[in-house]
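FIELD: query
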Amino acid sequence: MTYDPGTEAARLDIALVCMPIVAAERPSLALGQLQTGLSDAGISARSYFPSLMFLDYVGVEDFALFDLARIDDCLGDWLFSQVAFPDFEADDNRYIDRLLARNKPLEDQIGDNPHARLNRLRALMPEFVNWAASTTLAENPRIVGATSTFQQHVASLALLRVIRERAPDVVTMMGGANCETVMGRATHQRYPWVDYVVSGEADALISTLCTGILDRGRDLPAKDMPFGVLGPVHRSEGYPTVAAGDGVPRAVSADMAKIPLPDYDDYFQALSQSLNRDIIHPGLPVETARGCWWGERQHCTFCGLNGGSMKFRAKPVDVVLSDFAQLAEKHGFARFEAVDNIMAADFLDTLVPALEGLDYDVFYETKANLKPHEVEALGKAGIRWIQPGIENLDTRVLKLMRKGVTAWNNVRLLRSCRQYGVRVSWSLLCGFPGEEDAWFSEMAEFMPALSHFQPSGFAMLRFDRYSPYFDNPEEHGLDLVPSELYSYVYPHTEEELAEQVYFFEDRALGDRGRGMIRNDHTYGPGLEAVRARLREWHDAWKAEPPLVEQIDDGTTLSITDTRPAATAAEHRIDGVGRAVLLGTVDAPPRHRLIETLRTDGYAVSDIETALADLNTRMLTLEIDGRVISLTLQSPHTPLLASWRFPGGFLNKNAEHRKTGSSAAA
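FIELD: result
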């Protein structure tokens, strides 16, 4: 039988729901794409955003707490656990104790009575979920589907459980990153109120699946389900298997040109009703590629972001440009966050030049081996915020990560980004199997010289599902178990959690890594020194960022230096020193620099003396056998304000801000 949407015209076919905890300042790309695909197939669909209303419900101050906790400590999931699993009795106060012990920034800012504050928030969640269920059921949908990534899983389970209790005829569905492969199967096996689970990419199959469900409800035969879908029939007939990966099917959309333009109208309708709409400056998520072309060659040891499919696929450039133009025209602004895990390599020669002059603000994730002229081109194209995967400033640690770049690449990129006004998000990661504390001692020595570049975060290695560390733990001397705090969220054994969750830790180390952000000396002197240098680096950027900038009159370099560790406020460099400094812009090997300058007529002894002087003044840095200039050319391009993220931002200081108002009222 073919589904006829006219037979039940009074009912909405499918309600798509985005539950907390996700950013309020941008719509869900996944739901936007699915809604377009369903509508194109003649299936009525609407998206709902309890994730946005959650900001109104708890208030801005409490909403900000979720930025202070690591996602693998599952604060958002814990909030909704009692609704999803009403018979599960965990030690909530013990959870809070461990949460604060593992998250020093949260402990520092949560206030004098953290247990009362967090338990108060948790007590509000039954009312919130009931409100979300009432809103979702208002148009009498036949199907309710929830998306789940990172900290949305338990909230989505809670919503679908309440919907099953209140509207037993409604078919329920889940998908998203938390439902890939074995996690999707575990979700389907353990939670009978979830009828269908999509493992993998749903955009190419959603209309076929929903047409089948609208015809057959929960009785859709296995043979009629698209690859990657788990349904009620599998609970009795057994689950499908594949030979690759962890043995569970994963759907893949092969043709990126066919990925639909997302429909964000329902998000903006919800935003117009938010009590905090005046402080929310939304961004527009866009998707121009999937997978990782670098990971296809050499999978970074810690990365699990691509799930069960590393295969890289990019949209044609004309489709990307059309997507940008349509979204900007429809919504009246042009702030775009590309959600790609890495920018397509050929976009530097195709998309980037085409964006120049269009007055877009764009964010992209890139590889860290960008050359200075490529960074300049990004800035001119409006791509003025990137996340390049710098990760560390020691080549030996980077080799442990299999990043395919060296420390000098990363320093050059930091300089290029400051020169051309491209804001860079990066974190200095530590805790890799095989790293040595002495390496961090060496890093700490030169970090003050970099204080005019953008500072980084500092994070302990996290073990993610689908990463090489997860896939081959014994090879790296690891014994991985689910992150500790999951046991306070899910009513499952450790073995069951190992199939359910995304984040893991080494059994022997436990939360050893959290010591890096505390005041006790968990690590050796190297990491402690790096931590101290990073604090100083961030302090230097609290007011006017430091600057090292030179003007060349043809014979003398006049350099202004405002770094806290500067050896002088002004430097004048001429002669062989000027030649050396100008020759180190692209970080040549030391021996090649000396040979080039010797050929130009300078004495080797004079070159060596000039190099030593420039290193002492911290105007150059010798790293990985190369010499790199640390000075910017005047004039440099100013950076975007730190709050102007193209993917959206909250203006939390607005006088008209509303807090603590109940969305359920």
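FIELD: remark
Confidence is low (pLDDT under 50) at residues 1-7, 512-521, 654-665.
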